[in-house]
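Notebook entry, cofactor series.
This is the third protein in the set we're modelling with a bound small molecule. For this one the ligand is NAP. I'm keeping the input format identical across the series so the outputs can be compared line by line later. Sequence and SMILES below, as received.
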Amino acid sequence: MKTLIIGGTGLISTGIVKALLKRGAAITVFNRGQTEARLGGGVKHLAGDRNDFAAFESAMAAAGPWDVVIDMICFRPEQAESDVRAFAGRCGHFIFCSTVCTYGNTQTGLPTLETTPQAPLSAYGRDKVACEQVFLRAHAAKKMPVTIFRPSHTYGPGGNVINNLGWEATFIDRLRQGRPIVVSGDGHGLWQSAYSEDVGVGFAHAAGKPACFGEAYNIVGDEIVTWDEYTQRTAAAIGAPAPRLVHIPTDLLLTLDRARYAALEEIFRFHGVYSSAKLKHDVPEYRSAMPYAEGVRRTVAWMDQHRKIAAADSDPQEDRLVAVWDQLSRDLQKQLGTRA
Ligand SMILES: NC(=O)c1ccc[n+]([C@@H]2O[C@H](COP(=O)([O-])OP(=O)(O)OC[C@H]3O[C@@H](n4cnc5c(N)ncnc54)[C@H](OP(=O)(O)O)[C@@H]3O)[C@@H](O)[C@H]2O)c1
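Returned structure with ligand:
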């Protein structure tokens, strides 16, 4: 199976390469060569920038045809159009990595299925929907068989460990130091995380499979946890003390600093619960094999090794917020003559 991965050294794409190698695929990765490759040999490398459309398209035509092409880093419709020019008639199966952010998360029925209407809240989600439509039109026009994957939160070595407020680089150091952790709302929002190598298996075993042609799949982890549990389990996994969780209303956080909490506004304030049942039916090799605690330990070990963990003191805002919130709570209790 002659397979091209656009990307190939990233968080998810490394897991895909690993699983495809196990399947015996002949793999080429296309990237700029800036991101460290975490796997050994056995993979051919084509260097280039996918945004240099003319050079990208002629390089792909020269190196093709491909049995399978997987695009991990297509974010805008003009990139999708470039893919169609590069691969139409030169590829047996094209897989596009989209996102669950295409749904918009405002739906009331959980879990979110592939049939849930897409109403994205973010520019990221809207652009991914536009890309999906470019590829589905190419599929309908029989230019190339297309499959769409919609991952939810995916973590692992090569990435970081998120918290309920976003991608705060100080989160792990705050946990290690036993500092309070702000969790929005009452901490009962629901969340699902998937390990990158598990997600890689899902992509790799869909590759070249006719049952997957023309289909879209959510690809998410099995476990559903509250944000409070997520935070507590992350602390326990890395041997940090049980954190003091400070619940602050989401609306208040957004009023205080909309830019800082942009990810909370667009993503984390909503339940992130999706079903992978359709994928498991069509690609039974896909499963959540990695226990969360072990996945987090591996991710944090990688972050330590690559100095990706920022010191808690480098961002004093969360401590200031907690101090003001605690004082506010005490003042309210005093004024109302109540005690928690
Ligand atoms: N992680 C999540 O929670 C999550 C959730 C939903 C959806 N997704 C989707 O997952 C995809 C990201 O996958 P990933 O995590 O494997 O990728 P990634 O970590 O973002 O890695 C990016 C890869 O693409 C290459 N690259 C970046 N810019 C390039 C360019 N202009 N030209 C050529 N190569 C380029 C990088 O290598 P060089 O730097 O060497 O070029 C690297 O191999 C995205 O489509 C995203 O929307 C992720």
